[in-house]
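Onboarding guide, step 5: your first structure request.
Type a short instruction followed by the sequence, for example:

Predict the 3D structure of this protein.
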Amino acid sequence: MVNSMNVRHNNCDAADKKKYNAKFVTLTSQEQEDWYDEIYQECLMAFLMLEQANREKRIAAFKSATIP
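The system replies with structure tokens like these:
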């Protein structure tokens, strides 16, 4: 989504056929904003999941070290 919704690349320039996304360009400003919000939420979720995996490892290590 970040590669095709004008976040990481300019997907609104019709001259750049490789990156141009006609579907995104035709969205209203509000619809584009809603998609930006979705992308942000997805990124937050991914980061939280990575942090949780590390947290669970630390918790498991703590439990195994303190319980005989």
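Each response can be followed by summary notes, for example: The mean pLDDT is 92.
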